[in-house]
Write a structure and sequence with these properties.
The chain has 375 residues and is mainly alpha-helical. It has one domain. The protein contains 14 helices and 4 strands.
Length: 375
């Protein structure tokens, strides 16, 4: 087996499992060899999904396509979407996919499986799902996650972690300078997610406030002038250097703010609101597309300019998905697409039903709420 970094955080002992209850935090040891979930990742996934639907719903439904074009300004929602949402949540979603792929490698090592074969299967299974989803939503991300995962992320597992981190920085920089962001950011963000796992950063999320606080300050320092520059050229800033820089910096601001809030009394609120969506991120990401298309057809959005109606439907879809996720996770360990994906990855049926008497928020063998100091 090829040698790996002595510093790779892949063989450490799993920490205690912590769950949040009304009366406080309770701790229990995870079963040996289990790769428990991390609260921050599920919350961030759910948070990212909320932003992504705001970005996708207008283009997916051809909103206003048959109306005369209007310039992008801060006098209507198009400008604010460009400034605060576009290219702000997609980078976070891509980073989280890179993290999840790398956590899978750790789980495979702990199980004694051939980790690269497991990752290969996971990416191959994702590819046809992405291709099918492309038929409904051209330009969706899953296909590119699978392709770039196969071409770049999988080969990077033979590299030392410093090379992966360096490659991530170079690929992100090139994508910003040459294309102004968008899908070309995916390879670098997948590698960045891998580097964060291999350096042990992800396992420390929620255990400290100092790191996220420092990063929040740095991201803010970068984001403010980049946003000012983007405002000056807002009508032309869809995919520009200023938009890409502002997008990545603001994505960093959003991420670090969530991580900091998870260390406060708002932890339970954030977990309640975003964690169910995040635990079923694949199911919710894919299922949002037919729901958006149905709404767009029923409400004749190509000839509509009602942004209020558009946003209300987007919120309504998220509420429907949240309710479905909560109810589903009361009985099952994971979402339906997650179950099929995981079963195909491991080439054997995975446990589906939740143990009798175990609530959706209770501790089980794949759930860890890290943030012990909250409240």
């Amino acid at each position: 087996m090829p040698a790996r970094d002595d510093g790779d955080a892949v063989t450490r002992r799993l920490p205690a499992v912590v769950d949040v209850h009304p009366e406080g935090s309770r701790t229990r040891e995870a079963p040996l060899g289990a790769r428990p979930r991390i609260l921050a990742l599920d919350v961030l996934r759910g948070f990212a999904l909320c932003g992504i639907i705001l970005v996708n719903i207008a283009p997916v439904t051809s909103f206003g396509r048959e109306l005369p074009p209007s310039p992008t300004t801060l006098q209507d929602p198009t400008g604010w979407l460009q400034l605060l949402v576009q290219q702000r949540f997609f980078p976070l979603f891509s980073l989280l996919f890179g993290i999840s792929f790398s956590l899978l490698l750790e789980s495979a090592r702990q199980r004694g499986a051939r980790e690269r074969v497991v990752l290969l299967r996971r990416l191959i299974v994702l590819l046809p799902l992405g291709v099918l989803h492309q038929l409904l939503q051209p330009g969706e991300a899953l296909t590119f996650y699978a392709l770039f995962g196969l071409l770049i992320l999988l080969p990077s597992t033979w590299l030392p972690r410093w090379a992966v981190a360096l490659g991530a920085g170079l690929l992100v920089s090139v994508a910003v300078l040459l294309t102004g962001g968008g899908l070309p950011l995916v390879p670098g963000l997948l590698l960045l997610g891998s580097a964060l796992v291999r350096y042990g950063v992800v396992d420390r999320w929620g255990s400290t406030t100092r790191g996220p606080a420092v990063l929040l300050l740095l991201f803010t320092v970068v984001a403010v002038p980049a946003l000012v520059q983007q405002v000056r050229t807002l009508p032309q800033s869809g995919f520009s250097i200023s938009s890409a820089v502002a997008g990545l910096a603001l994505a960093g601001v959003y991420t670090t703010m969530v991580l900091l809030l998870l260390r406060t009394r708002l932890q339970r609120t954030l977990a309640t609101g975003f964690r169910p969506l995040g635990r079923m991120a694949l199911t919710n990401y894919v299922s949002a597309t037919p729901l958006m298309l149905f709404a767009g057809h029923a409400l004749d959005w190509p000839r509509s300019d009602s942004w209020a109606q558009l946003f209300l439907v987007a919120v309504g879809i998220l509420v429907i998905q949240w309710v479905f996720s909560v109810l589903w996770l009361r009985r099952f360990r994971q979402g339906p697409l997650e179950y099929l994906w995981r079963t195909a990855t491991w080439m054997q049926a995975q446990p589906m039903k939740r143990p009798v008497g175990t609530a959706a928020g209770a501790v089980d063998d794949d759930v860890r709420l890290q943030e012990r100091g909250a409240g």
